[in-house]
Design a protein that fits this description.
Layout: E1 2-7, E2 22-27, E3 40-45, E4 49-54, E5 59-64, E6 78-84, E7 95-100, E8 104-109, E9 114-118, E10 136-137, E11 148-153, E12 157-162, E13 167-173, E14 183-190, E15 200-203, E16 207-211, E17 219-223, E18 240-245, E19 249-254, E20 258-263, E21 279-284, E22 288-293, E23 298-303, E24 318-326, E25 337-342, E26 346-351, H1 362-365, E27 370-374
Antiparallel strand pairs: 1-2, 1-26, 3-4, 4-5, 5-6, 7-8, 8-9, 9-10, 11-12, 12-13, 13-14, 15-16, 16-17, 18-19, 19-20, 21-22, 22-23, 23-24, 24-27, 25-26
Length: 376
């Protein structure tokens, strides 16, 4: 399996071995190993750091060390290659979920223990009012018999979903994104008055998007109505298949042929509107979007000033009024794109070429070509 990255890279958060922004996908590098030891489950991007979670429960990090420190020197401030994080930092357990805030990371182990790393002056760590820069385990805040099934973080707040449909959150809740009463929530607090069992959550900058089962399509948006993020929402999203939120927009793939987006659109964030059903997976960054299509192409649009939407932006650094397409064969003759992720002006694609050929070098990848597609 090969991981590719492009976009903002001032602190090495792309993990490609340097600190230069790039609009061309480059193969990520590992500090201690030649290959990923197991398939990639998820990639999460913060302000200037990135977490990679493997199916084996192993965790890797690159960029600013706002996450677990990967066994590096305490004086190290950033790394430009992905380094494995010792499970000793999680009590020896494997990791099942992770998320990245602006300068912090949240880790959930297979034993349902929650750890916070990094810093934040608005409760981002969930470790109490006196703790703004620390690493530690959160006290268990949910019923013993329940498990954590989903985790999402925005710029400065976090939401977790339990197996019984309850939701807890902490961090900056001044806009009501963590329920009432609004304010900074220093320790995990249950979000009350949600009228359905939640199965999925995703966080914008000043809102939380809580979603029920695809069968019922229930959803609710907590927090600010900036960019009409609440008032423009549909009544329900039955049959949803995938969804995400950028800082100011929400995106939903549902049914066999429906794509909906609403919210902030000054950089073209809401993209092509309704689509013909070729969208399989969506990844939402701070103000840009990646989509994996049925044909294996990667489509990108929105704010692309740092190269995170590929080459071909307008004079404002946006991909607005069209989308860029990265064709799958550009990642290797026998490669197949199987996953995508987006962070703060960062983009990631991982391919299933696993263990039978070496990653492409930068020269070959630099020949990647993009095409434009008009919005419909």
């Amino acid at each position: 399996m090969t991981l590719y990255a492009f976009g903002s890279n001032g602190c090495g958060q792309l993990g490609i071995g340097d600190t230069e922004d790039t609009c061309i996908p480059q193969s990520c590098k590992l500090l201690e190993e030649q290959r990923w030891p197991s398939p990639i489950r998820a990639v999460k991007g913060g302000g200037s750091h990135t977490l990679v979670l493997l199916e084996s429960g192993e965790l890797y990090t690159s960029g600013s060390l706002f996450g677990p420190r990967a066994g590096l020197s305490s004086s190290a401030k950033s790394i430009s290659k992905f380094s494995r994080v010792s499970s000793d930092q999680f009590g020896g357990s494997k990791v099942k979920l992770c998320s990245a805030l602006w300068e912090a990371s949240i880790i959930v182990t297979v034993d349902d223990e929650v750890y916070a790393f990094g810093s934040g002056a608005k409760g981002e760590l969930g470790l109490g009012k006196e703790t703004a820069s620390h690493s530690g385990k959160l006290e268990k805040f949910w019923p013993q018999e329940e498990q954590i099934v989903d985790l999402s973080s925005g710029m400065s707040h976090t939401v977790v979903v339990l197996s019984n449909g309850d939701v807890y959150g902490w961090g900056n809740g001044r806009k009501g994104q963590l329920g009432d009463p609004a304010g900074i929530i220093w320790e995990p607090r249950k979000i009350q008055k949600v009228a359905f069992e939640v199965v999925r959550a995703t966080c914008g900058r000043e809102f939380s998007y809580l979603v029920g089962t695809p069968k019922d399509g229930n959803h609710v948006i907590l927090g600010s109505d900036k960019f009409s993020i609440r008032s423009a929402a549909p009544a329900a999203i039955p049959g949803w298949r995938d969804l995400g939120a950028s800082w100011g927009s929400i995106f939903v793939i549902s049914g066999s042929d429906n794509f909906r987006a609403w919210g902030r659109n000054d950089h073209g964030q809401t993209g092509p509107g309704r689509h013909s059903g070729s969208f399989v997976q969506i990844a939402t960054g701070s103000e840009h979007v990646l989509v994996l299509t049925k044909g294996g192409d990667i489509i990108a649009w929105g704010w692309g000033e740092h190269g995170n939407c590929g080459p071909g932006v307008d004079s404002q650094g946006d991909v607005k009024g069209w989308w860029n397409t990265i064709h799958p064969y550009r990642f290797g003759k026998s490669s197949k794109a199987v996953g995508i992720a987006a962070g703060c002006a960062t983009s990631f694609v991982w391919t299933e070429d696993a263990y039978d050929q070496p990653p492409q070098d930068s020269k070959e990848v630099s020949e990647t070509k993009f095409t434009r597609g008009k919005q419909s």
